[in-house]
Structure formats: structure tokens, C-alpha cells
Write a structure and sequence with these properties.
By secondary structure, the protein is α/β, with parallel strands linked by helices. Helices cover 31% and strands 24% of the residues. The strands form two sheets. A seven-stranded mixed β-sheet has the order 3-2-1-4-7-8-9, with helices on both faces. Strands 6-5-10-12-11 form a five-stranded antiparallel β-sheet. A hairpin with a 2-residue loop joins β5 and β6. α6 crosses α7.
Length: 277
């Protein structure tokens, strides 16, 4: 049994502030340990439940945040940028039985600690086939195309509620309770590690690869906080304006859909000016 852990940082224990997740800041350096504790607890729980392999895919910012030396020796970690499926790289090879979303958060334009979708700002909303989409929802659809179920989600309480829509059977662990985008009531790392480990052990029973889910098509719509960003996004073939500050595209698979999304966000981020956005 092989479990893939997609590890993001905004939903980690104790994280509430941009500096907590911005590489190079003193706060980020401190929060790396908290992030690593959450991920290691999930891995230990999966091993407790009978998993043979745990592959951790770093999914935050530079994708070089976790402290490898503090992970269990049985864990393997995929670190660094420029991966075909970004946050869920690894699901496409046919050897992953389940995926866990550790340290996840809610989507752009919604309530939640450090809520966003791919870009920290600039994107004010994302919709998949008309449904407002978080990174968790987008990535769950990618995993489903390979028959890989989402069995564990950790983050703030609103992230767990969001996951009820795209992974209703998954185990959820709230490591903090949302107060505002930059404030939360946080549990201690000792407590969250115990909670995550216990939930991961239970979740291992759900690690059964299923039949790949293929949709007819997937339409992704994005809304930005400035018109020039929407215009920049239309450089990507197939991306067209749909309204004020909005663009959309349609893909036959979520594999193509998430790769187009990655292209759009990369181009848009390069069009953001320091002061005016």
C-alpha cells in the first residue's frame, strides 16, 4: 500500500500569518518545524495502519519547506518545483492507493485562515463547472481521474468543512479554528500530532484504489482583482474572457485542466506589479 501526502503549509499547526509561510522569514523558519510535525504525524499514522510506502510531495510555494531530517526514516519526499501535476504529482503513475491533503486551506474569496487558490492574492475566486473551488477540490478531481481517493484532510475547521463536499468519507483533522484570514485559535503541536496520527491510522482502511472517474469536460473560471491580470491570462491558448476581470477555459480531463491552471497562474503572477497589483 502506497500513500501520497500532498503537503501544503497554510493549513499547518500554528500558522496564521503571511510571514509564517513566506520562505526566508524568521517566522517561516520557525513554522517549518510545525509543518514537518503535521506531515510526519500523518506518515506515522499511515504506517501504524499498515501502509508500506509514504511519499510526501511538497506543495507549498518554493516546494522546499519541510525538514527532511525530521521525518520518519521510512518516508520519501518529493521536493522542488516544476512537476507535471504540481501539488498532486505522483498520482499519475498507477502505484498510489490513496492521497492525503495535509496543511490545506480554503479557496480564494472564501473565509478561512490564509484562504487563497494557488496565488496568495490576485485571484478572488475560482469555479470548477460552476462550483466554487479550493485547491483541495481541484486536486481531488485530478486524483479521481486515476482512481485515487482522498482519505485524510488537515487544516483549519473551515478547510475540513470544505473537504466534506469533495471527500465526504475522508478523515478530517482541524488543527486550528478560523477567526479571520490572519487569526485562529490554535492547538499545540503535541495535540495536533496525536490527532493527525490517529486519524491517519483510521484513514488507511480507506486506501483502496477505485475506478478512474472521467468527466465529459471541466470548465474552470477565474476571477482576478484587476482587469490587466485577466488580459494576461488569455495569453494561454483556450483561455477566453467571460466578464469583467474573469476568464474561463474548458478541458477534456482534469490532468489538462490543472496544467492549464498552473500555466494561467504562472503568467498572471508575472503580470502583478509590486505596488498596484
Amino acid at each position: 500500500m502506497k500513500i501520497l501526502v500532498s503537503a501544503d503549509m497554510e493549513g499547518a499547526t500554528g500558522v496564521t500569518w503571511p510571514a509564517d509561510v513566506l520562505p526566508g522569514t524568521p517566522q517561516w523558519e520557525r513554522c517549518r518545524s510545525l509543518f514537518t510535525s503535521d506531515v510526519n504525524a500523518a506518515a506515522l499514522g499511515f504506517y501504524d495502519g499498515g501502509a508500506d510506502e509514504v511519499l510526501v510531495n511538497e506543495a507549498h510555494w518554493s516546494m522546499r519547506n519541510l525538514l527532511l531530517e525530521r521525518l520518519d526514516d521510512r518516508v520519501q519526499m518529493l521536493t522542488g518545483k516544476h512537476k507535471s501535476l504540481s501539488m498532486v504529482e505522483g498520482v499519475q503513475y498507477g502505484d498510489v492507493d490513496a492521497v492525503a491533503f495535509v496543511g490545506y486551506h480554503t479557496g480564494a474569496g472564501t473565509e478561512g485562515v490564509l484562504a487563497h487558490t494557488y496565488l496568495a492574492n490576485s485571484i478572488t475566486g475560482v469555479w470548477l463547472n460552476g462550483v466554487r473551488a479550493s485547491e483541495g477540490l481541484l486536486n481531488a478531481h485530478v486524483a479521481a481521474e486515476y482512481g485515487v481517493p482522498v482519505i485524510l484532510v488537515t487544516g483549519d475547521d473551515l478547510t475540513c468543512a470544505d473537504a466534506d463536499a469533495y471527500a465526504p468519507g475522508a478523515r478530517k483533522v482541524a488543527v486550528k479554528d478560523h477567526v479571520s484570514r490572519y487569526a485562529a485559535v490554535c492547538r499545540t503541536p503535541a495535540r495536533t500530532a496525536a490527532d493527525i496520527r490517529a486519524a491517519a491510522e483510521e484513514a488507511t482502511a480507506l486506501a483502496v484504489r477505485g475506478t478512474p472517474v472521467r468527466g465529459d469536460s471541466f470548465t474552470v473560471e477565474l476571477e482576478f482583482d484587476a482587469e490587466h491580470l485577466a488580459a494576461a491570462a488569455t495569453v494561454v491558448p483556450g483561455v477566453a474572457p467571460t466578464g469583467e476581470r474573469r476568464v474561463a477555459y474548458t478541458s477534456g480531463t482534469m490532468y489538462d485542466g490543472i496544467r492549464t491552471f498552473k500555466a494561467v497562474t504562472t503568467i498572471v503572477s508575472s503580470a502583478v506589479e509590486e505596488q498596484y497589483g
